[in-house]
Design brief:
heterodimer; A: mainly alpha; two-stranded antiparallel sheet; two-stranded parallel sheet; B: alpha+beta; Arc Repressor Mutant, subunit A; elongated
């Protein structure tokens, strides 16, 4: 026995189960986060929600008394979740890495290509031990020798450099 | 390097051209466009389409008008602008060039293999 509420969704009154409404809210929140930096994001989100509203009306016209969890999940499946949007893998990767524990030292560089992602990788082509310094050098666009010298000096002076190296080696991925 | 990433990048490259191709045939609204693309065996999520349409509209290649609908909220019907038509012509030329190049290269490999086999002793 589920509670059903009426919502005003883009100019239409839609009876919807409370749990389904929560699913809907989570989805639209994920869209808002995903399109955070996109020019014209309000328009995009509005269009998507409008389309969802249309799909709701289709179901109601067919005789459904209210919108259920299954309905919302099916609609989300066909619209696609942000991480499934074509060609947006890099954007998603940035968002995921921002929430996880520092796997990537990259940040969105403010270039004209909004999907550019600067990640910290090990450099398999330029390595002495694990390629960490090579990767760091690539990221900071300097000579790996300089990075290695600094690393060595820091390790000798403070001792923690070696631990840092091991952590970076484990946490960064190989660059192909 | 994984196949999904590379394949997805290939698709991403041609999406705009495909969408414009559909709209060029006539005024269309988003789920129309999805259907036509599905019919051509190119499946994309509606969620992928809307941002692309908005970007193209903001670049002034597309324009739209609202049409009231009995079955819900009003719909946006998109069409090409003049700028869009010109852009489309350029994309078409680029696509043809690219398609021919790729065909030539991938075919060339096959021919090499065939002639190689021919030289093998029986």
């Amino acid at each position: 026995m589920k509670q059903v509420i009426n919502i005003n969704f883009h100019g239409q009154v839609v009876p919807i189960e409370v749990s389904a409404f929560d699913l809907l809210k989570n989805y639209t929140a994920s869209l808002a986060r995903f399109f955070e930096n996109e020019e014209g994001k309000e328009e995009i989100i509005n269009d998507i929600e409008s389309r969802i509203g249309e799909l709701f009306q289709e179901r109601l016209k067919k005789g459904a008394t209210c919108i259920t969890d299954d309905d919302v999940n099916a609609i989300i499946k066909s619209m696609g979740r942000p991480e499934e949007f074509d060609g947006e893998e890099e954007k998603v990767a940035t968002k995921l890495s921002e929430t996880s524990s520092g796997k990537s030292a990259g940040a969105d560089s403010q270039s004209t290509d909004t999907n550019t992602l600067r990640r910290l990788y090990r450099d398999e082509n330029n390595k002495v031990l694990g390629g960490v310094c090579g990767g760091l050098a690539r990221y900071f666009r300097t000579d790996p020798v300089i990075v290695r010298v600094i690393f060595a000096v820091v390790s000798l002076a403070f001792g923690t450099g070696i631990l840092a190296y091991i952590i970076l080696d484990c946490c960064t991925k190989q660059r192909f | 390097m994984n196949i999904e990433n590379t394949a997805s990048q290939m698709r991403k490259g041609v999406l705009e051209f495909c969408i414009l191709s559909v709209i060029k045939q006539g005024e269309a609204y988003p789920s129309d466009i999805i259907e036509k693309m599905k019919a051509a065996n190119l499946n994309i999520f509606e969620g992928t389409l809307y941002p692309l349409l908005t970007r193209l509209k903001n670049a002034e290649f597309l324009t739209y008008r609202w049409i009231e609908s009995n079955s819900g909220p009003p719909r946006k019907y998109f069409m090409l602008t003049e700028k869009g038509a010109a852009f489309y012509k350029e994309l078409e030329a680029t696509w043809n060039e690219l398609a021919n190049a790729v065909q030539a290269l991938s075919k060339a490999e096959q021919e090499y293999t065939t002639s190689n086999d021919f030289n093998q002793p029986e």
